[in-house]
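Need tokens for this chain, all 323 residues.
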Amino acid sequence: MQKLSILIYHRVLDTSDPLQPGIVDRSLFDRQMWGISRFFRVLPLAEAVNRLRKGTLPRRALCVTFDDGYRDNVEVALPILRKHCVHATFFIATGFLGGGCMWNDRVIEAVRGLNGDRVDLKEFTGQQFDLPVGLRARGSVLQAILRAIKHLPFTQREAAVAFIEKQAGRTIPDLMVREPDIRALLRGGMDIGAHTVNHPILSRLPVMEARREIAASKQTLESVTGHPVRLFAYPNGNPGLDYGEAHVAMVRELGFDAAVSTAWGCAGMRSDRYQLPRFTPWDRPLPRYLARLALMRLRSPAMTGDSIASAAFDVTERDVEGQ
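Here are the structure tokens for all 323 residues:
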């Protein structure tokens, strides 16, 4: 059976961040890209979707995607992708092309600089959060704060973020790509996709505003790149929660060829090409990372003609020695 693995990344840090242990750094990303380039057939997303539809997808087909448009995608990830001849598609939220960063990164940097032992967000969420000493210990608290305010109405969420920033005395960092960075990605052989303007949760917007977010991001990126933008990624991307069927219809009507969600799994021939699933293994040791990728392809009960022996493969520490 035809199977397509689509990986999802957001950032690649130069060095690991104890406050964000789930984000890969340069060294780990280098190992991961070496592994997938050796054990998988990496394809551009547009080509892979087309071949999946035609039934001509090669075995172990895999795509790499990045969401949001962080500058480290260009400065850190791009050289590694080119080193290993790995193609990737970058989904850009165009509202940040002029500088600044997304709301969650503002919270991250504020929590990094907070003094005291508590963050009181009762006014916004009805909750308060105890702050342990040390960045690594604060990581779980940070995630709880992000979850608590993520789905608040836009104005209320912005007020909560500004409140935390004021307590920390931090200014908004500049983390996102600019127009020259997008052109650098294209020169590096990568593809660009749309990801709305302001990265809103589409299901929380009026219908026409949601459509404008999608359409305007496409138009802006086409103006920057000089090429049609045919791929889209839903912000946050949880089907039925962050977007609905009306938004899928918008994406189709606006001329996109395919769209990706954050539903966990592999795509098959019967998958809706406007709601393609994605995932990235959380395992840090490279053998486990690669094994997780292989085993994910076995989850569908309809894998006729394939077996664990043929779809998965043995990856040992000896295979990745020296990497």
